[in-house]
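I have been asked to look over a protein record a colleague put together. Alongside the sequence sits a line of tokens, each denoting a local backbone shape. Please read both lines and tell me whether the tokens look consistent with the sequence. I do not need a full report, just your reasoning and any doubts. I have pasted the whole thing underneath without changing anything.
>
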Amino acid sequence: MNLGINRIYQMKLMHERVKQFLPFMCKAVKAQDDVKNEKGQTLLQIAAECRHHKVYDFIYDQLLKKENILGFDPSDEIRERVGWRDYSGNNLLHTIARITPLSQIDHIQGAALQMQRELQWFKEVESIVDPKDCESVNKDNKTPRKVFAENHKELGREAEKSMKETSTSCTVVGALIVTIMFAAAFTVPGGNDEKTGLPTFLTKKVFTTFIVSDAISLFSSTTSVIMFLGILTSRYSEDDFHKFLPTKMIAGLFTLFLSIVTMMIVFSCALYIMLDGKSSIVVPSMLLASVPVTSFIWMQFPLLVELFISTFGRGIFDRNQKTLF
């Protein structure tokens, strides 16, 4: 029995000694494994500068797994890695704040989406660094936020111009639909009954579809005009491109799309009522009415989908761990 107790004691003692020794061993291995380029940047900084989010995520996750497997708190390790300074005094947040020839953003459609993606990168890194690193200065005496503002000034102007041009053209289209749908509500097809003053085809289901579609088109086009006017009168600060402006653009494009679809339904219903359902004329007219809807989907719907995914989707960073400090 004593032999058994002594064996357990020796195993426990060995376990405690291994736990004490492992942190020193990990530091030694880490010092040998850190990959740096001629600028003194670590692999994590290089991945961030090149905007390789998969490599960035992989390194981050490996740091978490390594420390968790060994039973240590990963925050110290990650704090040290993201706070590492290159030869110019730039930490990870300084690195991500700069647009360099290595920053791969040209594949992203439009300046507005590029600006939003850059903000997503900056805020992702900002969420994992030590708070003091957010205010630290490099050798040029610049904080990460100042570096970001200076390096993204031109991209911000292009994003503002792009959003204003899109909003202006969509506002004109929305205003025209508002005018047409408002007039259609009071000039119903078939006219009004002379005795009651009510629409002649009030009891027909197609007339109900006509009125409901007209109301939806009127309200949605009015909403789209309001959204686009909100974009045109925005202050266009850097952070507005992260959520505020994309959300308004999504709402404006969606409601404009809805208003165009319902306007074509109104047109088709009016033709059906006036021509008494003559399919030889009504069907080709309905097919022609689908042309504007198809054109809008072809030109603007991809932008709407990409904006929605970029703003409300899972994004480029899928990790659940966002804040460690």
Observations:
- The two ends are 48 Å apart (CA to CA).
- DSSP finds twelve helices and no strands in the chain.
